[in-house]
Amino acid sequence: MKRVSLLALTLAAGLSPASLSPLLANEDVAKRIANPAEQVLQTVDYANTRYSKLDQINASNVKNLQVAWSFSTGVLRGHEGSPLVVGNMMYLHTPFPNLVYALDLDQGGKIVWKYEPKQDPSVIPVMCCDTVYRGLAYADGAIILHQADTTLVSLDAKTGKVNWSVKNGDSKIGETNTATVLPVKDKIIVGISGAEYGIRGHITAYDAKTGKRVWRGYSVGPDDEMLVDPEKTTSLGKPIGKDSSLKTWEGDQWKTGGGATWGWYSYDPKLNLVYYGTANPSTWNPKQRPGDNKWTMAIFARDPDTGMTRWIYQMTPHDEWDYDGINEMILTDQKFDGKERPLLTHFDRNGFAYTLDRATGELLVAEKFDPVVNWATKVDLKTGRPQVVAKYSTDQNGEDVNTKGICPAALGTKDQQPAAFSPKTQLFYVPTNHVCMDYEPFRVTYTPGQPYVGATLSMYPAPGSHGGMGNFIAWDNIQGKIKWSNPEQFSVWSGALATAGDVVFYGTLEGYLKAVDSKTGKELYKFKTASGIIGNVMTYEHKGKQHIAVLSGVGGWAGIGLAAGLTDPNAGLGAVGGYAALSSYTNLGGQLTVFALPN
Question: Which of 205, 199, 196, 237 has the alpha carbon at shortest distance from 219?
Fold first, then answer.
């Protein structure tokens, strides 16, 4: 395809030409991102904005939305992620066993093909927080699936036949997958889950045509295995130095150090950098792993061609609360202090929202995006370190001591459920958890393939607040302030979608699809679907008509009690007790619901 046609599409989508240079991005993916009728990535675009230029459904008429059609996935447990739409085809995924459906939108959602992976069910108990999967990606005529057992598969989008498959990890030692993938240029970028089993996290690039491994960079360990340069890789503008990770672990603890990479990936074609976050160190007992435990709980910026790390920033050194740093990195070009800058905004599990310069890794803003956050008073912008409150330090309080009243809980002020950004309002729309916890660490021994947690947790709504366990907020990433906040009875575990129609969509754990005004937060529409929503709302256009689609199917960490039939309040890493009331509002299911305006 000629460069001029891609440029025209890019401009038509309201994006800067540099953001989708065909020389740097995957040309097919870039072309389709520029067409808002389609969605080929779970993140909507490379910048992870989850913003759509479609505006047929707007703040004035969204109240008239109706169910257009629905589809049963045939699978229970938590349904995260969203379908993809390419041309007249919709591609739909499920939790384990990770079925893939190709549906013809021209024929009322007729099943054109169905892919059924053959996976050993022994992987199920190794998945820490439900059998979720955050969805497929499309590139160059292929659907890319990363299964729970870490098998990475390329499927022919027309026929469903396997182009190639490769194993990315080993479930026998606790490596699994729950995340989507990111096609960049001629590569597929993938991560790994399993920090609760003492795995050593990594990010890997595979050749998109053959499945051959190109490079792998670990989160912790020796410099050469992490793909860092002691002099050229920086943290807050300074070289990280030799053995920057090894020096922060005791002995060989880095070999079971965690730092899984199960979150979302972003890409800046202009800077040619991929951004992602790393998860918690293993174990959850901080007394067993003295030091900063670098580079867990960190933001990485890597060159997708070589895997070499440009910069790293660790948000929660020596984590004592399981505040994984895997949440999405949203890339925007905005004015900061009167100067246009390339920004990265990240809503961390630890309750702080970070704004950084994504070219240099300079920390610009770090503020609480839920006022109840209490484990730290603030983040020092010069050192990047949080100022920990001794009362809530599980390390200082010691093993076998129950530290009470820590806010947020281990599932964070926000977990994986992705936020959205609207260039029209310059605001971020963030699904949040309003939850606190008690946390008691204990001594644990590492055994390959067995849980390596070492803490007992209980979770509950933030005391002295609105009584619910969630808020849906609008955030200003320049000022570091909440602009408006809508309370919710349960955590908002669904990914948000912002649209040019001045409407923001999200789902609730009870099962409501909600639409709110992007400027004020006023609720404009809601509809109760068949099961709790932890999927991400998406939109597409078919035959000139805009549709909204969302997966229902309660589960995930917050809904693990319902999904897996657990009753012990401390089970599900502490979530079962906290969300016990959810069973009075919804039930298991697996369904896609599609909405449109009446003719």
Answer: 199
Residue 102 DSSP code: E
Name the E strands within 213-328: 213-218, 234-235, 238-239, 266-268, 273-277, 298-302, 309-314
Residue that the structure tokens 């937060």 belong to = 521
CA distance 104 to 450: 43
Q: How far apart are CA 339 and CA 294, in angstroms?
A: 32
Q: What is the DSSP string of 160-206?
A: --EEEEEE---GGGT-B-----EEETTEEEE--B-GGGT-B-EEEEE
CA distance 298 to 281: 11
- Residue 289 parent element (H or E): none
**Terminal-residue alpha carbon distance, the chain:** 36
Q: Rounded to an integer, what distance in angstroms lies between the CA atom of residue 171 and that of residue 173?
A: 5
Q: pTM of the entire structure?
A: 0.95
Q: What is the pLDDT of residue 572?
A: 78
Collapsing DSSP to helix, strand or coil, 577 comes out as: helix
CA distance 509 to 527: 13
Cα–Cα separations (whole angstroms), residue 391 to 71, 375, 401: 50, 8, 12
Question: For residue 478, is it left (φ>0), alpha (ψ between -120 and 50) or beta?
Answer: alpha
- Which entry of 322, 324, 415, 502 is annotated as an active-site residue? 322
Q: What's the sign of the alpha-carbon dihedral 481, 43, 546, 537?
A: negative
Burial class (CB in 10 A: 0-12, 13-18, 19+), 478: middle
In sequence order, the β-bridge partners of residue 20 are: none
Strand runs (DSSP E) across 462-590, as ranges?
470-476, 481-488, 497-499, 503-507, 512-517, 523-528, 538-542, 545-552
Cα distance between residue 91 and residue 111, in whole Å: 10
Nearest to 508 by CA among 411, 373, 417: 417
List, run by run, the mean pLDDT of 10-residue segments along the chain (599 residues).
Answer: 41 42 70 97 98 98 98 96 98 97 97 96 86 96 97 98 97 95 97 96 97 98 98 98 98 97 97 98 97 98 98 98 97 97 98 98 98 98 98 97 98 97 98 97 94 94 95 98 98 97 98 98 98 97 98 87 81 81 92 97
Handedness of CA 198, 129, 324, 569 (dihedral sign): negative
Category of 307 on φ-ψ map: left (φ > 0), alpha (ψ -120 to 50) or beta = left
Specify whether the CB–CB gap between 174 and 446 falls below 8 A: no
Please state, in angstroms and rounded to a whole number, the distance separating the CA atoms of residues 221 and 226.
6
Q: In the structure encoding, which two tokens stand for residue 542, read together?
A: 């078919």
Query: Does 149 qualify as catalytic in the annotation?
Result: no
pLDDT for position 130: 85
Q: How many CB atoms lie within 10 A of CB 338?
A: 5
| Phi and psi, residue 532, nearest 5° | -60, 145
Q: How far, in Å, CA of 516 to CA of 58, rounded?
A: 10
Both tokens assigned to 10:
């890019």
Q: What does the chain come to in residues?
A: 599
- Biggest CA-to-CA distance, the chain: 67
